[in-house]
Amino acid sequence: MILDPKRRCPICGALVPNRKPVGKPYQCLNCQAKLQPAAIRGEAAFWISALAALGASWLLGCRRGELAGIALLLFFPASFIYWLIVEWIWPTPLKPYDGKTQFWG
Q: In the chain, which end has fewer C-beta atoms inside a 10 angstrom radius, N or C?
């Protein structure tokens, strides 16, 4: 979880700690439920970051072939900045763990 957002357990409503081992589920200290982030923003994050990268490279004066190359380079910082802002304003909610290990969260 980025920037220490306040996330609540969907089962009991208690605050869930921010720290956990990578690849393991979050665990509620109150009800001991295993939790994972809800995957609701992945596709939107991709498209918003891609459009922001294309717009930024266009504003930098890139055209045709270099537009795609610079946009690809700018995609990663745009995606990182997007996730920082979104997680700070609207943290991804948690849902009960379904047994599938997620890569980062």
A: C
